């Protein structure tokens, strides 16, 4: 079972920062998950649509300029990084799961990835684009069919593996509270990976292993190796 550093190594370092991502790389995580919004046509790595929880600022992201956002402290003196900075840092060393949060992220993402492929040598095969917004995934499938897609769900809709497979997804990314044996078997039969979030203890990790889950999202990638 693989370990995906959730928001970087966010258990011990400020989530979605370059520091947390560096630490996930040092922990040899099999992948790193980050959350992405669009601010002034630039993709930035942050989980919430406001800055209150993860920075020393307050207010909605949409009310910030990129420059103002970058002046905030995202913890331990870290900035809110851009997706470009993260692509540079990760540099194909491990799989990068980009979770799209904002509905306006598609065009900037496709433009950025085209530039990253040329200028940074970003390998599209080392990317997984996921979202709870399946409309976004459908659009991406039409515009750049070779990108791997993760169909995120926070519940267990009926025939979810059928749906994900029809969407052309590579994986189903499920909440640990809803995953079950049928779901794992059904997804595997359809050639889909099953990734489960967020697993932060040895007992739950063992249960996931038993179910045949392919990867867990974990805030403690270093510690998870010993579970
Ligand atoms: O991608 C897995 C997980 O990150 C989805 O939920 O809210 O932590 O972005 P959330
Ligand atoms: Mg996420």
Description:
This protein has helices spanning 18-26, 66-70, 83-90, 106-119, 134-143, 160-167, 181-189, 202-211, 221-224; strands at 2-6, 31-39, 42-45, 95-100, 127-131, 148-153, 171-175, 193-197, 215-218. The protein is of the alpha/beta class and 227 residues long. It has a single domain, classed as Phosphatidylinositol (PI) phosphodiesterase (TIM Barrel), CATH 3.20.20. It has an eight-stranded parallel beta barrel with strand order 1-2-4-5-6-7-8-9, surrounded by five helices. α1 packs parallel to α3 (83-90). The mean pLDDT is 98. It binds SN-glycerol-3-phosphate and magnesium ion (MG). Residues 6, 33, 35, 47, 99, 130, 152, 173, 197, 217 line the site of SN-glycerol-3-phosphate.
**Superfamily (CATH H level) name:** Phosphatidylinositol (PI) phosphodiesterase
**Number of domain units:** 1
Which ions, cofactors or small ligands are bound in this entry? SN-glycerol-3-phosphate, magnesium ion
CATH topology: TIM Barrel
Low-confidence stretches: none
Mean pLDDT figure = 98
- CATH architecture grouping: Alpha-Beta Barrel
Q: Class, according to the CATH hierarchy?
A: Alpha Beta
The biggest beta sheet is recorded as: 8 strands, parallel, barrel
Put simply, the count of helices is 9
- Secondary-structure element order, as H and E? EHEEHHEHEHEHEHEHEH
